[in-house]
Specification:
Its main location: membrane. This protein is mainly beta and about 950 residues long. The protein folds into three domains: about 1-105, Immunoglobulins (Immunoglobulin-like), CATH 2.60.40; about 245-435 and about 470-535 and about 565-585 and about 595-945, Beta Barrel (Maltoporin, Chain A), CATH 2.40.170; about 440-470, no CATH class. Helix content is about 5%, strand content about 55%. The chain has eight helices and 47 strands. The two termini are about 50 Å apart. The model is unreliable at about 1-20 (pLDDT under 50).
């Protein structure tokens, strides 16, 4: 199959050369007041040949005629322009064709702050071969979306995951996050996701780096095939047609941390050497203080008595109070040798620092004790990469483009304790509760009231620990240091890619495209590995030094910042314990200090099983035809083939009787599989404003690296102890996708769209959870498995409409509404069914905007329904975990002070919407966190435009 694909470009290339002499080529760029115009229509009426401009406003038009030829250029909201060219044999350069706004749209386009950007996005969508939604850079900047994930959350059918108040991952049509292909300039972005998922974490990418976002819901054969949900293609900024320079600066405030934020960016573009060399440079910084209160509950799901599995093991009140820093820079260079040949270079450098001291106060019901943890977390994410490419008109009917790229990402912990080990240092203090509890059920266990046989226990968000002796509170003089841990994390991934594409114009009605791609992925990971020290006295070892009380160590003030757990009923200030200083925590991990205080190294011998490395090579080829069956009906059909070879190196642990008898042995896993992916798209233009689209596509997703590892990781810092185990026998997941969509484009810049979709899915990979108890300790084992076949069905509808028919000042009003309904089913066992992981039944975006005479105000709501996150085949749906429905409200406003200076205000999470995870029932909270609101105000100055 691969060999056949390699012959396709050569065969078509030879056929095309035979007919190339009969055709001529016209190349040029279409531009408007706000730069190049993508999606403009370029036609030669005499020969009835036409084309559309690409994302950079460039076009290639084939014509059989030479001599004087009239070319007509049209674009939504602009006056059509007719030019006459003297077409010669070979390539004729039409230069830059400038269009002017149409009469009735002129004021909207010139004085509007959103209209030009919306116009570009709608034009790209209208002319795309795939079923696609698009947003452009200016639209991203009009809402308070400061990273790439937040930028894409407004798109119809897209859902995002939020981590402590900021979106960090995105998925299309409610499918699992790993089922959405995240692309940068058409290439799969490497992922250093902590859990080994292929879904790229996007919080390291500032939104200022992005020029367009294309969300493809039904892909074409020239796109990456591992995209069951769809693909999200972030296109970085490229050089403009003329010089531009703009800067922005903003400062803000976080209502939770009671501290400031700042944000700044600069974008510069220019052309040199008679417009042959184009340069684009974008840089951004975003520095913000943040905080979160998280109420976490763990349950005794591993108990042998079914009636006690909903009883509470621990309740934790956790506070984060930290700083986040995002830095990004993007460089784009292109050099045009002549009308038929161009090369380009793109570079990207991003860094995200997440510094978060964490303060954890537990009530441990199983062991009748308090526990207090202080950790100093300093997570770092790096994303760097570059690509080199070219576009070449090889003849009148044949065009070639190519790219080679190298992208690298790393996610790691590197806090410097005084010993040689790097990672996340955690100190654990414990205090016995001698008087016992008052709110236990008749079986001696603690439940929430709705789970208790006798109604005892109350409700989670009005938590009463039920300590018998009211004076027996957490006390620094009684909290003794019993455990020190360094949790280790170092995950990195590098993708090296080469791609070659040919486009052949066989006639005015038939266009062929074929190409090949090779990607080599190198990945290594360390997660779940921990260095553990236990105090000898806590183990009952004779003559060990006495346990250190927290009160005798160097401490600092607890970050109250206006209150502690104000999102819950009651007063919890007694759990806000002054923590260690950062340096004291580091000093405790010094080797001499550990020895002095009687700490023993009890690091699990199985730690190496948490470390793996591997590689993956993908060889892909495709061929597709674009056929204009009539003036209104277009067919795009083709096939893609992806052949994957996979090697993973890890360590396997074998235990015979006792942990001391554990032996380690290296193990290597190899696998190969092929994905043949036929696809067909049909598009029928009812008229110039309305069209229907239908598509069948076959797509797939590869198993995650971490799910395939031969080892297992054990996190004994949690209760229950969590064990994550790999599965070397996982198969890829395949899907047959059916889509039907309708689109109607309003004349005043807007869109009405709707459609239905269905996916038949084979070999779904699901994270299965098993609970058990051994030697009085609760354990949770998580392992990925291929489950039975699944299906997903959905419908979506949206409208983007300017209400300019209203009188006077009201004519500036407009709405953007979109809704997606999704349902799915997968059967983990013969008894239970559930939806796909991360799949929400309801997704909804609502934006009310006002835009008139340089004033823009937008109020946006984003809703994501509840979704299952993990299943428990052993215990059933009452023990599945879910992320609850979430609705956030954001707002922004922009005012043109002058023609070049704009003032703006951005507000996030106005309603302080919490993020909630529950088990089985919404009342049975697993986690509930609050992170407040944030906002900023600033200035954008278009120094040169």
């Amino acid at each position: 199959m691969i060999a056949g694909f390699k012959q396709i470009p050569i065969t078509i290339f030879m056929l095309t050369l035979v007919s190339a002499a009969k055709a001529q080529t016209v190349k040029g760029v279409v531009s408007g007041k706000d730069g190049q115009l993508p999606g403009a229509t370029v036609q030669a009426p005499v020969t009835r040949q036409g084309t559309a401009t690409d994302l950079n406003g460039s076009f290639t038009l084939n014509t059989q005629a030479t001599g004087k030829v009239k070319i007509i250029v049209t674009y939504i909201g602009h006056e059509a322009r007719t030019i006459e060219l003297d077409v010669k044999k070979g390539i004729t350069d039409a230069g830059i064709i400038q269009l002017e706004p149409a009469g009735q749209m002129k004021e909207v386009l010139i004085k509007g702050t959103m209209a030009p950007s919306q116009l570009k996005a709608l034009s790209i969508k209208k002319n795309s071969l795939a079923i696609m939604d698009v947003i452009a850079a200016d639209a991203i900047g009009k809402l308070p979306d400061r990273n790439a994930a937040e930028a894409v959350q407004r798109v119809q059918g897209v859902a995002v995951a939020r981590y402590h108040g900021e979106a960090d991952a995105a998925t299309v049509r409610g499918t699992p996050f790993a089922w959405t292909s995240i692309l940068f300039n058409g290439n799969r972005l490497p992922s250093a996701n902590v859990m080994g998922s292929r879904n790229s974490v996007l919080d390291a990418v500032p939104s200022e780096m992005i020029q367009y976002v294309q969300v493809s819901k039904a892909i074409t054969p020239d796109m990456e095939g591992d995209a069951i949900g769809g693909s999200i293609n972030f296109i970085t900024r490229t050089s403009p047609a003329k010089r531009q320079l703009n800067v922005s600066a903003a400062a803000g405030y976080n209502t939770f941390s009671k501290d400031g934020t700042y944000n700044g960016s600069v974008v510069y573009g220019d052309r040199f050497f008679k417009n042959k060399l184009g340069v684009m440079l974008a840089a951004a910084i975003w520095n913000r203080q943040w905080g979160t209160d998280a109420f976490d509950v763990s349950y005794n799901t591993g108990l042998s008595d079914p009636g006690q599995r909903k009883s509470i093991s621990t309740v934790m009140l956790k506070r984060y109070m930290g700083k986040r820093q995002t830095y990004g820079a993007n460089l784009g260079l292109d050099y045009t040798f002549n009308a038929g040949n161009k090369i380009f270079i793109r570079g990207l450098m991003d860094k995200f620092n997440d510094i978060r001291p964490v303060y954890e106060s537990y009530v441990d019901y199983n062991n009748s004790q308090y526990q207090y943890n202080y950790r100093y977390s300093y997570y770092q994410t790096v994303l760097n990469g570059a690509e080199l490419g070219g576009e070449h008109q090889l003849g009148a009917k044949i065009k070639m483009d190519w790219t080679v790229s190298n992208y690298y990402t790393k996610y790691f912990l590197e806090t410097p304790p005084t010993n040689s080990n790097k990672g996340l240092p955690i100190s654990t203090f414990r205090q016995k509760i001698t008087g016992g509890f008052t709110n236990l059920s008749s079986d001696g266990k603690r439940y929430w009231g709705f789970d208790s046989n006798d109604g005892k226990g109350g409700a989670p968000l009005s938590f009463d620990p039920g300590i018998k002796d009211a004076g027996e509170k957490m006390d620094p003089s009684k909290l003794t240091l019993q455990q020190l841990v360094i949790a280790q994390l170092d995950t990195r991934e590098e993708d090296k890619t080469a791609q070659l594409n040919f486009r052949f114009n066989l006639s005015s009605k038939i266009h062929l495209k074929a190409g090949a791609k090779y990607r080599y992925k190198d990945r290594s990971g360390m997660f779940g590995s921990s260095i553990v020290y236990l105090a000898g006295a806590s183990l009952g070892i004779p003559q060990s030094p006495a346990l250190l009380p927290l009160s005798q160590l160097e401490r600092t003030d607890f970050p109250m910042r206006g209150g502690f757990f104000k999102g819950m009923d009651g007063n919890y200030d007694s759990y806000a314990i002054n923590p260690l200083t950062k340096q004291q925590l580091f000093d405790l991990l010094d080797t001499a200090t550990l020895r002095k205080n009687g700490f023993m190294n009890v690091t699990p011998k199985t730690n190496p099983t948490n470390i793996y490395s591997g590689s993956e090579a993908v060889t892909a080829g495709y061929a597709m035809a674009e056929i204009d069956a009539s003036d209104r009906f277009k067919i795009v059909a083709g096939v893609r083939n992806e052949y994957t070879t996979f090697t993973l190196h890890g360590t396997k642990a074998t235990t015979a009787g006792t942990p001391a008898a554990t032996t380690l042995s290296p193990v290597t896993v190899n696998n190969t599989y092929n994905a043949l992916l036929p696809m067909i798209h049909l598009k029928y233009n009812i008229n110039q404003q309305a069209s229907l689209r239908a598509a069948y596509t076959r797509t797939f997703v590869r198993p995650n690296f971490s799910d395939l590892t031969p080892g297992e990781s054990v996190d004994n810092t949690k209760n229950p102890v969590t064990i994550t185990k790999g599965n070397v026998d996982l198969k890829p997941t395949f899907a047959s996708n059916f889509d039907l969509m309708g689109e109607y484009y309003f004349k005043n810049i807007g869109l009405l769209s709707g459609g239905v979709f269905y996916k038949k899915i084979k070999d779904v990979v699901f994270s299965n959870r098993i609970n058990f108890q051994q030697d009085g300790q609760n354990y949770t084992l998580t392992q990925a498995q291929n489950l039975s076949d699944s299906w997903l069905i959905g419908a979506e509808a949206g409208i983007n409409k300017r209400l300019d028919f209203l009188p006077g000042i009201l004519s500036g009003l407009g709405v953007e509404l979109n809704y997606t309904f999704i349902n799915s089913e997968v059967k983990p066992t013969g008894t239970y069914t559930t939806t796909l992981p991360n799949q929400s039944k309801h997704l909804f975006n609502s934006i009310l905007f006002y835009e008139r005479k340089g004033v823009m105000v937008r109020l946006a709501g984003n809703y994501r329904g509840a979704s299952v996150e993990s299943i428990n085949q052993q215990l059933g749906p009452d023990f599945y975990t879910y992320t609850d429905r979430n609705f956030t409200v954001d707002a922004s406003a922009t005012v043109n002070i002058t023609s070049s200076i704009r003032a703006f205000v951005e507000l996030n999470n106005l309603t302080n919407e919490p993020l909630k995870v529950y088990m089985g029932s919404r009342n049975r909270i697993v986690s509930n966190e609050w992170y407040g609101s944030r906002g900023q105000a600033g200035i954008r100055w278009d120094i040169i435009k």
